[in-house]
Amino acid sequence: MEFEEKLKKFIERINKIKNTISTEEATKTSLIMPFFSILGYDVFNPNEFTPEYVADVGIKKEKK
After folding, report:
1. How far apart are CA 42 and CA 64, in angstroms?
2. Is this model's pTM higher than 0.90 or not?
3. What distance in Å separates the CA atoms of residue 41 and residue 23, rounded to the nearest whole number?
4. pLDDT at site 61
5. pLDDT tens digits, 3-44
6. In this structure, are residues 8 and 2 in contact, taking their beta carbons and an 8 Å threshold?
7. pLDDT at 34
8. What 3-state class would DSSP assign to 18?
9. How far apart are CA 30 and CA 17, in angstroms?
10. Domain boundaries, the chain
């Protein structure tokens, strides 16, 4: 399946499920991880995909 076709199917899926997503974790597993998979990343490989980073910027020291 080509990238454009995968992206169109993903958009259709988003439109179907967007109103049922109510938590940050649900957003990550149903939208963010599938999107990065479409982009070609192995979201289950910690050497390739890191789900959170510490943002040591300004007043947000040691926050994710």
Report:
1. 21
2. no
3. 23
4. 65
5. 999 999 999 999 999 999 999 999 999 999 999 999 999 999
6. no
7. 95
8. helix
9. 9
10. 18-64
Dig out the tokens for 28 from the structure. 């990550």
Query: What is d(CA 28, CA 51) in angstroms, rounded to the nearest whole number?
Result: 9
User: Tokens 């289950």 appear where?
Assistant: 44
What amino acid is encoded at 56 in this protein? D
Q: Is there a contact between 31 and 19 (Cβ–Cβ < 8 Å)?
A: no
Q: How many residues does the chain have?
A: 64
Query: What is the SS3 assignment for 14?
Result: helix
Q: State how far the Cα of 18 lies from the Cα of 56, in Å rounded to an integer.
A: 31
Check: CB of residue 42 under 8 Å from CB of residue 48. Answer: yes
